[in-house]
């Protein structure tokens, strides 16, 4: 919020979108209006700045979306005119008309709907933001799709410009962002209904979003999907895979918080006691039992085919120590070995530990770009393989081969002929 001599500017969140409202409160009659934007999906926020003239008629704000690089805009309250004063450019160029950016709303399953504290109204639908190349989208559920989510600490996933997304989208991969409960995308009530003893709602929301994109939007199939989460979003990835192992073909879990129960019981670890207000104190039996029921490490399933997984961690990470994902990966590998490398339930489980990295990954601009390239090469490779297998399954032809064997025997003066017909059905 910024306060001026004749008006106040307030950030507001409406239907999951971050926008701005101007309050003309220093007049005889208070008036308000929201700043309109051309795009239907966007984020507009006040910058951190000092020395703003108190008696100014104008103010600055930052505007962005999936298709609009960050802009600094000056808005005049009296004339209601906007002027771009600074704009980030895309060196390679960007034509927004080639892309579609839209939202769909996924009904929350009836059995996971819970009231918010103090009777605060809460939405019964989960927003999912989609970005894709309009000319590359195919019909009949044959599109590869990559979905991300976070859903923790009341932190919202606002729609902002990320150039790296286009490395996927320009290859025909649909990018989806699920705004699940536990985040602050739809306000405080949205957060409250996805924390403590409602934390599992975050996981079931993600599964509901994936199934909606398959069954209702008919954009993809589970074996053509990949998914990605970071930190508490890595907890989401681990829990979702235990709930529905066939939800996707590939998963990226970055610095994932997967040993939730053990970490939460050790107050010497940084942030542990702070987390008790988010997930509960495991020293209390009710909280212990609830954490035990969804902690990814404790709920790894035996003899189950999981997606192929890439896990990243940092040796210097003080928030999610490297040993958390390391022991999770080790247990996952042990649960799937089952006597040999060729076992049908064995998945790829790759882990990369950045020796000089922390919770934010590699430090330095180029090191982070290389890390992103590694993650995206994994995702693209797995989705390409999934598409190839899907195409092969659709083009296989049914071939029926019949073999006839005639056997003649002479018993005394009688001749007996036995005809054996063998029918073999195969696909090529």
Automatic annotation (TrEMBL):
<keyword id="KW-0720">Serine protease</keyword>
<keyword id="KW-0645">Protease</keyword>
<comment type="function">
    <text>Serine peptidase whose precise substrate specificity remains unclear. Does not cleave peptides after a arginine or lysine residue. Regulates trans-Golgi network morphology and sorting by regulating the membrane binding of the AP-1 complex. May play a role in the regulation of synaptic vesicle exocytosis.</text>
</comment>
<protein>
    <recommendedName>
        <fullName>Prolyl endopeptidase</fullName>
        <ecNumber>3.4.21.-</ecNumber>
    </recommendedName>
</protein>
<feature type="domain" description="Peptidase S9 prolyl oligopeptidase catalytic">
    <location>
        <begin position="161"/>
        <end position="384"/>
    </location>
</feature>
<dbReference type="InterPro" id="IPR051543">
    <property type="entry name" value="Serine_Peptidase_S9A"/>
</dbReference>
<dbReference type="GO" id="GO:0006508">
    <property type="term" value="P:proteolysis"/>
</dbReference>
<comment type="similarity">
    <text>Belongs to the peptidase S9A family.</text>
</comment>
<dbReference type="Pfam" id="PF00326">
    <property type="entry name" value="Peptidase_S9"/>
</dbReference>
<keyword id="KW-0378">Hydrolase</keyword>
<dbReference type="GO" id="GO:0004252">
    <property type="term" value="F:serine-type endopeptidase activity"/>
</dbReference>
<dbReference type="InterPro" id="IPR029058">
    <property type="entry name" value="AB_hydrolase_fold"/>
</dbReference>
<dbReference type="InterPro" id="IPR001375">
    <property type="entry name" value="Peptidase_S9_cat"/>
</dbReference>
<dbReference type="InterPro" id="IPR002470">
    <property type="entry name" value="Peptidase_S9A"/>
</dbReference>
């Amino acid at each position: 919020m910024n306060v001026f001599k004749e008006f106040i500017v307030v950030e507001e969140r409406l239907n999951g979108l971050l926008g701005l409202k101007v309050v003309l409160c220093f007049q005889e009659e208070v008036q308000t209006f929201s700043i309109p934007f051309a795009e239907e999906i966007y984020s507009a926020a006040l910058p951190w700045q000092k020395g703003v003239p108190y008696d100014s008629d104008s103010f600055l704000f930052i505007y962005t979306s999936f298709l609009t690089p960050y802009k600094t805009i000056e808005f005049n309250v009296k004339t209601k005119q906007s002027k771009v004063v600074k704009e980030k450019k895309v060196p390679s160029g960007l034509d927004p008309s080639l892309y579609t950016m839209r939202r769909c709303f996924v009904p929350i399953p009836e059995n996971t709907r819970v009231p918010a504290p103090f009777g605060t109204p809460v939405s019964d639908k989960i927003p999912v933001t989609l970005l894709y190349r309009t000319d590359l989208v195919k019909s009949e559920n044959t599109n590869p799709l990559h979905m991300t989510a976070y859903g923790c600490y009341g932190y919202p996933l606002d729609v902002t410009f990320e150039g790296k997304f286009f490395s996927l989208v320009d290859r025909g991969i649909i990018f989806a962002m699920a705004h699940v409960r536990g985040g602050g995308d739809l306000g405080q009530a949205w957060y409250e209904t996805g924390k403590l003893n409602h934390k599992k709602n975050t996981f079931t929301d993600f599964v509901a979003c994936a199934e909606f994109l398959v069954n209702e939007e008919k954009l993809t199939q589970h074996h053509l999907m990949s998914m990605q989460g970071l930190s508490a979003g890595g907890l989401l990835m681990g829990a979702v895979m235990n709930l529905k192992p066939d939800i996707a073909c590939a998963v990226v879990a970055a610095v994932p918080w997967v040993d939730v129960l053990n970490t939460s019981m050790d107050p010497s670890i940084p942030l542990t006691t702070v987390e008790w207000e988010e997930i509960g104190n495991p020293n209390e039996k009710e909280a212990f039992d609830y954490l035990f029921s969804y902690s990814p490490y404790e709920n790894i399933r035996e003899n189950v085919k999981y997606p192929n997984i890439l896990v990243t961690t940092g040796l210097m990470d003080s928030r999610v120590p490297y040993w958390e994902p390391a022991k999770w990966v080790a247990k996952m590998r042990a649960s799937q070995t089952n006597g040999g490398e060729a076992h049908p339930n064995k998945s790829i489980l790759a882990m990369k530990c950045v020796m000089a990295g922390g919770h934010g990954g590699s430090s330095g601009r180029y090191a982070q770009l290389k890390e992103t390239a590694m993650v995206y090469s994994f995702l693209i490779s797995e989705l390409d393989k999934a598409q190839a297998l899907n195409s092969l399954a659709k083009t296989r032809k049914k071939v029926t081969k019949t073999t006839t064997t005639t056997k003649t025997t002479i018993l005394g003066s009688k001749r007996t002929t036995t005809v054996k017909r063998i029918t073999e059905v195969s696909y090529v």
